[in-house]
Amino acid sequence: LTKKGLRVQGVPVRGTISDIPELVRKYHILEIVIAITTVKGDRLSEIINLCNSTHCRVRMISDPQAVDENGNPVAAGFRELNTADFLSREEVTLDTAKISGYLTGKTVLVTGGGGSIGSEICRQIARCHPKKLIVLDIQEEGVYKLCLELRRKYKDAFELIDEIGSVRDVRRLDATFRRYRPDVVFHAAAHKHVPLMECNGCEAIKNNVIGTYNTANVAEKYGVSRFVLISTDKAVNPTNIMGASKRMCERVIQCRRDSGTGFTAVRFGNVLGSSGSVVPLFQQQIAAGGPVTVTDFRVTRYFMTIPEASQLVMQAGAMANAGELFVLHMGAPVHIRSLAENLVYMSGYVPYKSMQIIETGLRPGEKLYEELLTDRETCRKTANDLIYIETEQPPTREEVDGELDILRQAVEASADEVESPLIRAALKQVVPTFKEPDEVNRDAENAAEMQNAIDLENPGRARAQKSQDEKEDEKKKEGITR
């Protein structure tokens, strides 16, 4: 407001951000450039949504402080919007010195190293000058491509070892650990696709739960210093087999507080651009001319970028004490519908006019919103304000061993079946928070996560509610004073 009516380098200031739609109509504007490089999070999302509503092309000025992955300054100029701009918070910045401290000169093994998250973890590790980096995965293509990239970039800076093998194969794991004696393990190997695991429950148990158990046991046997499990927000009050299996993975880690190995787990939301995630699917649908499909316009999810997720995992490894479960404070969740609309705008189309966005119905096991904390009352902050520790009472090894026996028996009883209700029943027995999707979705509109997403898209509503809450607090204080 203070600049309105003034001139900046001879150019008149016609209005504020809220005046953008009117100014676009009045001056027949075709393109909008966001030149405030410091604006992030909720405010940036609000500005982008306002600009997109005008149907103008929207670009941003490159951040003058930005550097590429090699630490070189990014060339100044205009850039197109990207999906990270739509995150409802500032991207997390982490303590790289502390991360390097436990990786430099060490032998590091990454299971699932050829996947989206695993491969980015490998890239981050490579920058920390390890002694050896072992990439272990059952999928050979991902390992092959990643190792080509790392050898081209780092040449002989460290020993890079590619291993094809499954975490379900104990003998293969034992041979790998015996040969290389890793100091640090990042466990990213997992089946993660919700609808696929709904009808392949045995595989979710064998790969996710038993695979984590196998890897953790071998890590202890060979004296691994740190072990970091990659978990997911779908493990919290799960409504599907995949989420429940990852909750069991967390319990396998949490019960090892008496170990000489420092076990920890890291839980975060959806990762923008990862394999099987919604963004690549939307981009493919847009490239094909549409329509863009959203399961339900009410669905909300937490999001982060691949590098951000990988750095969080590495930060947790630096901060970890035995058996801890780290959770990233991810800001407000985002409506998937809004993400689809923004991607359509980015591609030069107008949602629902030149590019349709349609609902297709929730998939098996899917709930309308995700959560990050099992119990909001039992979490505490770390030295990093954006990272929390879930402080629930950990299970004992005996309890987890009993739960694993129940799951193994269900897998054995289901050996001759493709899809078995025994798996679901067994998971409900060992994960009491496992509920059916319909049971959760009925009351979804009242969930804090759903309300937060609505507030993000309606900042005026959020500010009004905040003002009302502050007035109520003042009244309570006055009553106490009197």
Structural notes for this entry:
With 482 residues, the protein is of the alpha/beta class. It has helices spanning 20-27, 41-52, 96-103, 116-126, 140-154, 170-180, 194-198, 201-221, 241-254, 278-287, 306-319, 336-346, 397-413, 421-430, 437-441, 448-457, 459-481, and strands spanning 7-8, 11-12, 31-34, 57-61, 78-80, 107-111, 132-137, 159-164, 184-187, 226-232, 262-268, 270-272, 292-294, 300-301, 303-305, 324-328, 334-335, 357-359, 379-381, 387-390. The strands form six sheets. The protein has a nine-stranded mixed sheet with strand order 8-7-6-9-10-11-16-20-19, sandwiched between helices. The protein has a three-stranded mixed sheet with strand order 3-4-5, with helices on one face. A two-stranded antiparallel sheet has the order 1-2. Strand 10, helix 9 (241-254) and strand 11 form a beta-alpha-beta unit. Helix 4 (116-126) packs across helix 11 (306-319). It is globular and about 70 Å long. Residues 459-466 have low confidence and may be disordered.
Keywords:
3-stranded mixed beta sheet, alpha/beta, 9-stranded mixed beta sheet, 482 residues
- Assembly level: single chain
Helix amount: 40-55%
**Sheet bearing the most strands, described?**
9 strands, mixed
Overall shape: it is globular
How much is the average pLDDT? Answer: 84
Structure annotation, total helices: 17
| Low-pLDDT residue intervals, each spanning 5 or more residues | 459-466
| N-to-C CA distance | 40 Å
Query: What order do the strands of the largest sheet run in, or round the barrel if closed?
Result: 8-7-6-9-10-11-16-20-19
- Structural class assignment: alpha/beta
Radius of gyration (CA) equals 24 Å
Strand proportion, as a percent range, falls in: 15-25%
Strands, total number: 20
